[in-house]
Amino acid sequence: MKKLSYIESNMLPLPMSNIDTDQIMPKEFLKRVERSGYGEFLFYDWKKDDNFPLNNEIYKKSKVLLAGTNFGTGSSREHAPWGLQDWGFDAIISSKFADIFRLNSINIGLLPIEASEDIVEKLFQKVSENPKTKIEISIEEKSVVCEEIEFNFFIDDFSQNRILNGIDKIDISLEYEEKIDEFMQSRNKWAPKLT
């Protein structure tokens, strides 16, 4: 997981509500076991429309996805945030996220930012007026600035620390490697052996 403390980027607008994980990453691409290479399948069916924002050169390097409310509903597939991150997004702004999508995103270092519907609408307006409008996100300060629009977002301290330092669940487990080894050595002989 990469370290992430500050993002400055334009925003890719997706002003649609209730976008589910089946649309973000269609089921036919879930057969792979590795985490990389999903970006090309992101919004696969919607990208067939030449006017879909991911096809617009202006947004090709956007690190921030600006989405309508209730983003990431549906199944709990981790492949949806994998695809978003693999495409190049570091953060998603919406007025509401599905809980499991939010957790799956945080677990890989993709930052879900909830803002009020009013703020999200103002950001959409900014992008509509100028697609190159920049947004600045500080994970350390838990703050967002886009011209005169400024707001703070919530992320718990544990998740914030993980994103700032690029620590995933495997890294956390490895902090207890000595204790795990001690446990393995202290197991009763009758217990099945792990190889």
Features:
7 strands, 7-stranded mixed beta sheet, Aconitase, domain 4, alpha/beta, globular, 31% helix
What features would you describe in this structure?
With 195 residues, this protein is an alpha/beta fold. It has one domain (6-167): Aconitase, domain 4, CATH 3.20.19.10. The chain is built from seven helices and seven strands. Strands 4-3-2-1-5-6-7 form a seven-stranded mixed β-sheet. Helix 2 crosses helix 3 (99-108). The relative contact order is 0.17.
List the helices and strands and how they pair.
Elements: E1 6-14, H1 21-24, E2 64-67, H2 79-87, E3 91-94, H3 99-108, E4 111-114, H4 117-129, E5 134-138, E6 143-146, E7 149-152, H5 157-165, H6 169-174, H7 177-186
Parallel strand pairs: 1-2, 2-3, 3-4
Antiparallel strand pairs: 1-5, 5-6, 6-7
Helix pairs in contact: 2-3
So what's the oligomer here?
single chain
Residue fraction in strands: 15-25%
Mean pLDDT: 92
Distance between the termini: 27 Å
Q: Could you describe the largest sheet, including whether it forms a barrel? A: 7 strands, mixed
Overall body shape: globular
Task: State Rg.
Answer: 19 Å
Domain module tally: 1
CATH topology, which one? Aconitase, domain 4
User: Could you state the CATH homologous superfamily?
Assistant: Aconitase, domain 4
Into which percent range does the helicity of residues fall? 25-40%
Number of helices: 7
The strand order across the widest sheet is 4-3-2-1-5-6-7
Question: Any idea of the CATH class?
Answer: Alpha Beta
**SS content category:** alpha/beta
Low-pLDDT runs: none
CATH architecture: Alpha-Beta Barrel
- Per DSSP E runs of 2 or more residues, the count of β-strands stands at 7
Tell me the series of helices and strands, N- to C-terminal. EHEHEHEHEEEHHH
